[in-house]
Amino acid sequence: GQNIDQPTEMTATEGAIVQINCTYQTSGFNGLFWYQQHAGEAPTFLSYNVLDGLEEKGRFSSFLSRSKGYSYLLLKELQMKDSASYLCAVRDRGYGQNFVFGPGTRLSVLP
Amino acid sequence: DAGVTQSPTHLIKTRGQHVTLRCSPISGHKSVSWYQQVLGQGPQFIFQYYEKEERGRGNFPDRFSARQFPNYSSELNVNALLLGDSALYLCASTQGGSGNQPQHFGDGTRLSIL
User: Fold this and answer.
1) Cβ-based burial of A77 (10 A; exposed 0-12, middle 13-18, buried ≥19)
2) Residues A3-28 pLDDT 10s
3) Of A58, A95, B36, B114, which is most buried, counting CB atoms within 10 Å of its CB?
4) pLDDT on residue B56
5) Which residues of A touch B (CB under 8 A)?
């Protein structure tokens, strides 16, 4: 089975940097994905990590430590439009290699 | 290019009825997955289909069933609807059945059970 944990809510100020953590316990692992979901909309893909280390993509970076079962999403130069839920998802190695999503972290960016 | 399309966008049903939700994947994508998302929670995996075969099933009762057609579109069927089935149902597609490909989500069908 899989268990994924994220903080429920976070608040940050426009222009600041915020780190959203994700811890996971899995029987198998084939990659960790981060998605952004605005209220009432579909999740959209942000980043992917399968090896340890940092992946950078513009204002967004994601880090993975497989030995610790830990990942974080780093958002720099926060903008109001970054207010959304951020979902951590693990792809397991079970039949079908399906995604298991965490509960999501709702980020509010304040002026 | 069209993304993942789902229909209908909204649906209202009563307890005991059944419902069919439809999904068309991105052109060229052969895998479709279905998720249930209750307000304030992350999506919960229901089914995955790849090349018309069921590849995975989540922890949902037998009232939930799905299938994939030769054109890779998919249907999710739910029988004997319960109030707790009220949720956003998301369909996601990927090109293959595995690997580092992210899932691309449709806008979902919001199902309300009265």
Assistant:
1) exposed
2) 899 999 999 999 999 999 999 998 78
3) B36
4) 86
5) 4, 30-31, 33, 41-45, 48, 50, 87, 89, 94-104
